[in-house]
Amino acid sequence: QVQVQESGPGLVKPSETLSLTCTVSGGSINSYHWSWIRQPPGKGLEWIGSLFSGGSAFQKPSLKSRVNMSVDTSKNQFSLRLNSVTAADTAVYYCATDGGGYSLYWGQGTLVTVSS
Amino acid sequence: EIVLTQSPGTLSLSPGERATLSCRASQSINRNLLAWYQQKPGQAPRLLIHGASSRATGIPDRFSGGGSGADFTLTISRLEPEDFAVYYCQQYGSSPRTFGQGAKVEIK
């Protein structure tokens, strides 16, 4: 069974770039499409974007200008970069498989706080 | 962007009772591409239902999904203690994918 683990800094300063990595084990990263989803503390889920194995990517329009996603097949990793962060970007960030739109396998999530 | 509205916001029930959660979309969802997730505190969401009515692997048959177009439901036929959680619907029929605001099933 695929296992997914997010990693990255837990604290990012305003206006800087949030960088997270999702490491996949138990399967090839190429076997799946991938998504980033976030959840502000005490709030609901928000889809950030998805990257498909063929290379095409889709992002939430309101985040598109700040989001970059990539895959490193040699490391079996999926990455997220979110530029120019503000306090509104404080959230638990989840990496998850994308099975044509829904997510079966999820990481445990990593809390990123934006604060000076 | 399709807005999903879940109701009720909180459902207070006892173990053994039936729970029915609603997810209403601001417009018809393409090919009924709607999923349901369960989330417990401190945990990642868990996929329950996809394609409006298909149970994910390993999900007990007390969970069922129904509906079409813009109105969908998640039914838990008999609540078990481990079913008290927050439930989210998500549409993936059009971009951007969106989630409902969540509905909490709590112990009465």
Quick structural gist:
Chain A is mostly beta strands and 116 residues long.
Could you describe the 3D structure shown?
The complex is a heterodimer of chains A (116) and B (108). Helix content of chain A is 0%, strand content 48%. With 116 residues, chain A is an all-beta fold. In chain A, the strands form two sheets. A six-stranded mixed β-sheet of chain A has the order 2-10-9-4-5-6, with no helix packed on it. In chain A, strands 1-3-8-7 form a four-stranded antiparallel β-sheet, with no helix packed on it. In chain A, a hairpin with a 6-residue loop joins strand 4 and strand 5. The model of chain B has no long low-confidence stretch (mean pLDDT 97). Helices cover 0% and strands 49% of the residues of chain B. Chains A and B meet through strand 5 of A and strand 5 and strand 10 of B.
Total count of helical runs of at least 4 residues of chain B:
0
How much of the sequence lies in strands of chain A comes to over 45%
Low-confidence stretches of chain B at least 5 residues in length (pLDDT < 50)?
none
Main pleated-sheet profile of chain A? 6 strands, mixed
Low-confidence stretches of chain A at least 5 residues in length (pLDDT < 50)? none
Order of helices and strands of chain A: EEEEEEEEEE
Q: Let me know the number of strands of chain B.
A: 11
Features:
heterodimer; A: 116 residues; mainly beta; 6-stranded mixed β-sheet; 4-stranded antiparallel β-sheet; globular; B: 108 residues; 7-stranded mixed β-sheet; 0% helix
